[in-house]
Task: structure prediction
Amino acid sequence: MIAAFKYEWQRLTTLASTWWITGSSIGVSVGFTFLVCMFMRLNLPGELKGDVSKDDSRFFLEAGMTQFSNVDPFYYLVAFAIAILGVLSWGHEYRHGMIRATLTAVPNRTAVWTAKFVTIGVWVAVVVLVSCLVSLLCTLLWFGSLDFDYDWGELFLSILQRVVFSVLVTWLVMAATELIRHQTFALVLLYLWPLGVENLLRLFFLIFGQFNQGINDAARFMPFNAGSRIIQDFSLINGYESVDGVFDTPLSALGGFIIFGGITALAMAGSLFSFRTRDA
Result:
């Protein structure tokens, strides 16, 4: 097992694509925060001063730190950008025939599979943490004249939620890449499914939900729609939403984690079975 981790760490850190994708992911997320905060600061100077209420402080700090993903999870670009590493971790192996060299160096397939998922997962978690902290610094840089009410527990929980969401997204596309063994299609699927397929299904459910509310409510169980509830906790209409039950409408963060995490776990189990039984 140790040999598998050493091999995967060496592979991950010596590929130029790892550093390009990591740098771009952090740069895009922090750059977005910097530009939005700068725009607000320069165009609304009179309104942005003095004490800030607890709820407003929570919203501004969390929104700036996480690129407004508390309002819409698809603004959280870092999760979908860094997940590309998960696709490449398997895609490079199969596209260039390197999987045979990997299994020659480390014949234990379960160890190789585990090392890939754990190493990539830890890398993604660190990238998300760095992105959140630097984005928070950018927010405080532009809003330095505001007297925020800091709730460090809420901010820590917000970071933890983004780490969990990003790692699950990455693991899901990693599992899909191993199952289909096609790097390009897996990359397309990473964006096509949440942005295209699920949006069309949500529209379908919304239209037919006018005749049967149960159809519309079923949309909350779609993978990325459920996963988005891990990080989305603010509505532009209702503000911070209170959720009565785990699987009520809307889903709670725990409910979203159970559904999205369960789907990811099933895909990972399938990929492990596939990797252990199919030819390299």
Summary: The CA atoms of residues 119 and 128 lie 14 Å apart.
